[in-house]
């Protein structure tokens, strides 16, 4: 399971038998290394043994691990990690699980270390309660210091503690967002403290409350005054969405230092933040230019290159006849910046409109250094996330939370975005957390749901698409994969993972006994996506072959005839007293179970929440239970 992949490596430390008991489930998943003293190691326990003192072990693991999970009293953990704590940007996430395995405390590294996230995921795995003490969490708000992470924004300078404090005190916090996704704004609780935009300076009375803190979301580099010279009116922070594409041309062999200086100087003069750089763009002849590659490699920036032919089609303010005669396009820096910034997340599409230049072509040299650079900067409408998106296709079972696999629960709990039909969203509400983007769409808009999920994943987000039951049985998995296929998906980007769920036929069967025991099949009576003659043929074949048959989508308010036709087809092959179970809303509060026969099933309540299970020739009722004999048993005995 790749759920904890963002935290690898993770160590769990269990110095006592009780701790081993509460933490071993983590080690069994294979993603967490369990450390125990020699006297607690056994053959069947997947663990590593430490021979040193506990303090020495922790000192070592601290340097190499992204997260540490302690099965130890919080007081002891605090004493162990106290001398090691340095900076919340770099310290590992620290979690404590109590001896009874009931609570998972996010002790430190809550936001940036991801400890809150991990505490939720581990609590799900251990069937425990996550204990998160960060202020934003209690207010159902995303942490301000992790706000932009899903979108790949870079954190800029500012007084992060001061702004977090104002949020925790529920004081008004002004947000000025000049770039980047505003999706996060759509999913705030109604009483959030954020005030968006500026006050109208022409209004007689100020409309907005005086802010206690300010958040800038912008490619602009703001220099916050601090200290005595210019007293700052309130704490401020800045996030930088990566919207700037730096177009660059350079002489062959221009050293990295000159490129660095060109970028730094150009951005500084235009008050732009280096954190807002999405990537570099150039002519394809420069794809092997050492200085460019080193610059991009160091900073984990993509280098996009375009052919001269593509570049020459881009209208630019500063074309050059000299450049055109040398490389076949009148512009490299400007045209490449504009093209890179104009790409949508669907990489191959030609841009419809061209992105604006923020900085037109500049020529840059460093005294006493070889080489020269031309540089221009364009601003994209949508930020580059720098992340490979993931699509998790998740089955949420029939209804109740406990019927969802732990893996599926963890997937829902940890996705950036959860997309699904509104009814199912309510059923998984307990798994959702502040800061997640939750998009509930009506049941009719399945294709839109799939398209939306794909678009967000292509952009770099981790998107969980949820379906009731199993997502691969009349669910969203097929729709999403079909659409990916139609778009020429390479099978890897976005990365897809399917999480199975308990399908309605299993849920229904479990409520009435063991009706599916022998060979069975599922047939949907919905002719929205399948022509009715095909459905009739399958019904006839299943009936003739004596399959136990689960009918999905048996009847809606407008589709009432199909179930009657199905009954007639089955009566051609099976007795009128063949047992039939009608299970409505299995594992939900409004669950309703009716045991009837093939002859009488139309007299019973059937709707779109019902699964109809028709027995085979050997299926029997016994004291309110529906049983299909195992069938092979007699045969095995006889052999
Ligand atoms: N992917 C789902 C099926 C979706 S089709 C799954 O694997 O279960 C929708 C149909 O599923 C409904 O019309 C009904 O026939 C059945 N269904 C879904 N949830 C159900 C439940 N809780 N109880 C009974 N039937 C259910």
UniProtKB/TrEMBL annotation:
Residues 390-601 form the Tetrapyrrole methylase domain. Pathway: Cofactor biosynthesis; adenosylcobalamin biosynthesis. GO terms for molecular function: precorrin-3B C17-methyltransferase activity. Residues 244-378 form the CobE/GbiG C-terminal domain. Residues 57-134 form the Cobalamin synthesis G N-terminal domain. Pfam families: CbiG_C, CbiG_mid, CbiG_N, TP_methylase. PANTHER family: COBALT-FACTOR III C(17)-METHYLTRANSFERASE-RELATED. This is Precorrin-3B C(17)-methyltransferase. It comes from Thermoleptolyngbya sichuanensis A183. The gene is cobJ.
